[in-house]
Amino acid sequence: MTMRIIVPRTQMILAAVLVLILSAAASHAPAQDIVRGTVFNDRDQDGLRGTNEPPLPGVRVSNGRDIVLTDKAGRYTLPTGDDDIIFVIKPRDYMTRVDAFNIPRFYYVHKPAGSPKDLKYAGVAPTGPLPKSVDFSLTPHPEPAEFQVIIFGDPQPRDIKELNYLTHDVVEELIGVNAAFGVSLGDIVYDDLSLFGSYNAVMSTIGIPWHNVHGNHDENYDVKTDELADETWERVYGPTTYSFDWGPVHFIVLDNVMYDGHVEPGKYHSEIGRHLTFIKNDLKLVSRNTPVALMMHIPIVETEDKDELFALLKDRPHTFSMSAHWHFQQHFFLGADDGWHGKKPHHHLVHATACGGWWSGAPDERGIPHTTMSDGAPNGYSIATFSKHDFSIRFKAARRSADEQMSIFAPSSVASSETGTAEVVVNVYAGSERSVVELRVAGAKKWTRMKRANRPDPYFTAMKAAELRDNLPKSYRIAKPRNSPHLWAAMLPAELPKGTHVIEVRTQDVFGQVAFGRRVIRVE
Fold first, then answer.
1. Which of 73, 177, 381, 461 is packed most tightly, with the most Cβ within 10 A?
2. How far apart are CA 350 and CA 186, in angstroms?
3. What does the alpha-carbon distance between residue 425 and residue 434 come to, in Å, rounded to a whole number?
4. Quick one: CATH architecture of 13-142?
5. For the structural domain made of 406-523, what CATH number should be given?
6. Which helix (H) or strand (E) is 282 found in, with range?
7. Which strands make up the sheet holding 75-80, listed edge to edge?
8. What would the pLDDT profile of 48-68 be if each residue is shown by its tens digit?
């Protein structure tokens, strides 16, 4: 007996519609392909595999989502779409190639059709079909357990004039520095992406490999989606999110700028989004006790999906993260109230900017603006020292002595009857809630502990008042004063005798580093 299954006409119609929908979806799905290649020991450092250059097994390779390890023959296989960047994750004691500008070249951009053609700033040219083999070269490079990293916040030049400020104010004193590498924490330029090349040339003079973090002013503003906002970046720097090992530390360069061009050009918010998949897979291959340092542009406290990132990090005892973006410096020690649930607080540093207050303020005798930040601190950079599981950071004000870590505000002279009511205010440029700041008059045995003061820096407030009074040109105008997160205050000791006195201030930061400052006053 043969059974006949009768399908109602409405079900047949629905099935046909479903087939059409699935077919349409498939026709719009990103094309999938397989990329293959080899990671090898590039003994002659020419980027090409020679007959005497062995494969490297166990090296991580990624498509920005998935991560695989090379096999015994140094080979890997990964799925790839039509808009992917394939890259090697640098292991310890090896280095990737750098170009003529000291920018690490550890990736291959796969974009067969290229970037959109009508971009204001050029994106990636069509790369065509995948090569038969996408190979990555690594060169042996012993890396000690202790090393230094140079940290810039936003360099952010608007034009060549401001790039010259960066060159003479910050870069020149770093030429020849003995550091493993440097990093700029986003806003490499200020909207004009044609400056990337000139910026790279300037930074290359420092003489060390230089990493760059993607910032909100580094985006293509003439697109609608976040996926297309980094087309010029990809042409110049490659992926916006990746990782590498240096010494005992695992570094993650993280793009946490989400472009909202569909709302309006230039609009953005902070979100990690699709990059969380890469970070999750990346950390699976990093031992729990390995220190993890994250480098991003927008402070993590502003990032909408930070809790998802924190969940990936919470069981790791050695984590640190840094950002810039705010144009003032502040340390955070994040706990449960901030969404962090590790055993000890997570230290996040919002770093000072290389451009300070956007290259603003009256120029000095060399024509460079003082560009003081709104927290009253100068522009500059930091030297981070990593040592096994520990790290420390020392801020360096541009073109100033390395010993200058504070400014001291006090009257030049005070009546003897007013000494107990005259205030001393200290701005410790890289201070935090864990800093100890103390004051004494030279010769006294006892130090007085100063209290944190949540208010604007008095020097910066005076500068802003003078600017308004003198009606300076708009190009010189500095930001509005803000409450400084690293200000301390105390009264002068009472009953100081008449004469000249030296006020001494000492501070010890969260890393145990000590700094001193002095100011001379007269008691009349």
1. 381
2. 12
3. 18
4. Sandwich (2.60)
5. 2.60.40.10
6. helix 275-284
7. 75-80, 33-41, 136-140, 94-95
8. 999 999 999 999 999 999 999
